[in-house]
Amino acid sequence: KNCNFVEKLRDLGLRPTKQRVKMCEVLFNREKTFHFTINDLVKMISEEMNEKISLATVYNTVHAFEKKGYLKEISINSDKSYFDTNIKSHHHFYDEKQNLLTDIDYDSVELKKIPSLPSGKKLKNIEVTIKVEKV
Fold first, then answer.
1. pLDDT in tens, 81-112
2. Which of 10, 29, 124, 132 is the most buried (most CB within 10 A)?
């Protein structure tokens, strides 16, 4: 499996360092969808490898994956973004207190009306994030 990651990284123009290959394992060797922030990932990789990984390395690698379509970015607000290993169109619940993002199947949200699009623009996709809190 690791040779796939080495090729994937080279394809992105990134040197397949031990840390980047580990990042690929953490992100792409899993059964379930994974939602994470850059800081979550820095912490996980540092713990798994028992060595520090630079924020810049994680940031640049994650953004290269996102640009190439291997990850999807979900912006929660101006200073908080999650990344998602599920790149298909779908929606989310977001719990601010728990910092938890949960998938919602695309077909379970039905929009009755959307505003007219700005001139010269076409609809690419609609993804809804529903903010929730404990009752």
1. 999 999 999 999 999 899 899 999 999 999 99
2. 132
